[in-house]
Design goal:
Strand content: under 5%
Mean pLDDT: 89
Number of strands: 0
Order of helices and strands: HHHH
Oligomer: single chain
Number of helices: 4
Helix content: over 70%
Distance between the termini: 20 Å
Structural class: mainly alpha
Radius of gyration: 14 Å
Length: 71
């Protein structure tokens, strides 16, 4: 059913996020869910904007690798 599929999707997303570096996860969620700019994220978590870009690249690569491993 759709609710079972939705629950499975939620578990999958949670596992993917839980295995991500904590700062990369925070930056990724702030960008994707809150719509914050890299500058705002950098200020909020106390790193440079360049580091936020690295975290975002880590997060995107992690999501792709996780999806490949769990397909």
């Amino acid at each position: 059913t759709q609710s079972r599929s939705s629950a499975a999707s939620d578990v999958y997303k949670r596992q993917m996020l839980d295995t991500l570096n904590p700062k990369a996860r925070t930056a990724f969620l702030m960008a994707q869910l809150d719509g914050l700019t890299y500058g705002a994220i950098a200020e909020h978590i106390g790193v440079s904007e360049r580091m936020v870009k690295k975290y975002m690249a880590q997060a995107m690569l992690h999501c792709l690798q996780f999806a490949g491993e769990h397909a």
